[in-house]
């Protein structure tokens, strides 16, 4: 019996453990931290051996294959030792893909991938396909394959998940954009992160499709120097494309194999240029999979987005409070500020991942009347925007930040939480940060 060792007892680790057990592996799960009770219960139910708060090398180094959770960097000692011994280390996505014959839609990108994934899933589901959504969102892909292997899988994929693939090849790959993010995991080299994102198409063939942002200079530069085997379907707000999606006046137009789909951008439920692009990407996938045009239109008109992504919370005294806690990098915040139609009080800050704020200067000059910093160390934000905005204040809790915004904001203005940073200094994750914002707003 082959031995499968799993490093990390979170969502992807437990899903892989269950799938591995079902496929006849001897499975062992090892986590350096504490495995949550909900995951322990699954391990007990399936009679899977596990340990937490340690990695027992004597057991781990006897594996035939190791699945490493995406959160564990390649540089940790146990992973280096596995590689030195020639033991294959793969991601959950790679492992699970080997056990399904289903059609896979893989979606990655620095921003917009969650919205695009949820929107694509929504359209395919309403279109009558037997489809699931997994990966970086919802259930783990491995658990989905183990328990409910639908005919179609829509996967949101992070660069960390793509780093651990060898043969994984989605039939349809979507790349929403590439902007600097997570550079702390890529030796602070943007080119390493770019290469990681493009792994999504490395095993595609001439029968597969690659849908991407045709306006993204980083993507275009990469494509000029790296030949791609799959069929290219760009989407663009700036130019007409022969195959793919583009804007014609105020209408989205998608052309695939002489089949046309059009829809006015005014009818989109989600506003802002970035959401026009998300809609183009999701609609292109849906067109490829032969979903009826009326279904695509209905979904685009009724889809109200992702929690913590430009989420309208409440209007108080004619001031709109908006939760964009999912904006953990500068590019995501750029889209948020770009979508603001009136003067805005901006709550920003957290753990800086090597941010360059200069792209935001024109938008901050135009739209931001006050900045409220919410982080342990706000010096970089204050230095970056001190010349753009007169009113910059520092706060140490979400309640304090929201109360400060309430005092500053006037009728017909916005209060926007769009941190441009990771949340780990004051919060467990961006979800907790967003929930605390919403609670504080409701208590006003």
TrEMBL record:
Cellular localization per UniProt: Cytoplasm
Record's keyword annotation contains Amino-acid biosynthesis: no
Enzyme Commission number(s) from the entry: 6.3.2.9
Chief localisation class: cytoplasm
Domain spans labelled Mur ligase central: 107-285
Residue span, Mur ligase C-terminal domain: 308-421
Binding site for ATP: 109-115
Catalytic activity: UDP-N-acetyl-alpha-D-muramoyl-L-alanine + D-glutamate + ATP = UDP-N-acetyl-alpha-D-muramoyl-L-alanyl-D-glutamate + ADP + phosphate + H(+)
InterPro entries (UniProt xref): Mur-like_cat_sf, Mur_ligase_C, Mur_ligase_C_dom_sf, Mur_ligase_cen, MurD
Top-level enzyme category: ligase
NCBIfam families: murD
Family annotation (HAMAP family): MurD
Family named by the database record: Belongs to the MurCDEF family.
Function: Cell wall formation. Catalyzes the addition of glutamate to the nucleotide precursor UDP-N-acetylmuramoyl-L-alanine (UMA).
Name this protein carries in UniProt: UDP-N-acetylmuramoylalanine--D-glutamate ligase
Source organism: Aquimarina addita
């Amino acid at each position: 019996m082959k031995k499968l060792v799993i490093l990390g007892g979170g969502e992807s680790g437990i899903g892989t453990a269950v799938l591995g057990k079902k496929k006849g592996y001897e499975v062992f799960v090892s986590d350096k931290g504490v495995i949550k009770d909900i995951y322990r219960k699954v391990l007990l139910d399936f009679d899977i051996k596990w340990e937490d708060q340690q990695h027992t090398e004597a057991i781990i180094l006897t594996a035939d294959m190791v699945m490493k959770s995406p959160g564990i960097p390649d540089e940790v000692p146990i992973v280096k030792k596995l590689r030195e011994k020639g033991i294959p280390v793969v991601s959950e996505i790679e492992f699970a893909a080997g056990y399904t014959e289903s059609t896979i839609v893989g979606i990655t990108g620095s921003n917009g991938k969650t919205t695009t994934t949820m929107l694509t899933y929504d359209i395919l589901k309403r279109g009558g396909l037997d489809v699931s959504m997994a990966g970086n969102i919802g259930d783990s892909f491995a658990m989905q394959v183990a328990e409910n292997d639908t005919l179609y899988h829509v996967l949101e994929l992070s660069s960390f998940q793509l780093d651990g693939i060898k043969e994984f090849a989605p039939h349809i790959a979507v790349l929403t954009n590439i902007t600097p993010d997570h550079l702390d995991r890529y030796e602070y080299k943007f080119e390493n992160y770019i290469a990681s994102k493009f792994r999504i198409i490395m095993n595609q063939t001439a029968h597969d499709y690659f849908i991407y942002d045709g306006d993204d200079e980083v993507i275009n530069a990469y494509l000029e120097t790296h030949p791609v085997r799959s069929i290219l379907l760009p989407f663009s707000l700036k130019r007409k494309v022969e195959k793919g999606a583009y804007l014609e006046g105020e209408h989205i137009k998608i052309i695939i194999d002489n089949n046309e789909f059009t829809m006015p951008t005014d009818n989109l439920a989600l506003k802002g240029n970035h959401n026009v692009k998300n809609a183009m990407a999701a609609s292109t996938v849906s067109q490829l999979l032969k979903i009826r045009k009326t279904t695509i239109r209905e979904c685009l008109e009724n889809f109200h987005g992702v929690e913590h992504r430009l989420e309208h919370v409440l209007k108080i005294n004619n001031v709109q409070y908006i939760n964009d806690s999912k904006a953990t990098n500068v590019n995501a915040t750029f889209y948020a500020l770009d979508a603001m139609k009136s003067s805005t009080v901006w709550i920003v800050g957290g753990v800086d991942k090597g941010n360059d704020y200069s792209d935001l200067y024109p938008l901050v000059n135009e739209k931001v009347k006050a900045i409220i910093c919410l982080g342990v160390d706000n010096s970089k934000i204050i230095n970056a925007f001190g010349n753009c905005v007169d009113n910059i204040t520092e706060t140490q809790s979400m309640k304090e930040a929201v109360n400060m915004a309430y005092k500053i904001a006037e009728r017909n203005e916005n209060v926007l939480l769009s941190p441009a940073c990771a949340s780990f200094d004051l919060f467990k994750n961006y979800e907790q940060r967003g929930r605390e914002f919403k609670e504080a707003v409701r208590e006003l």
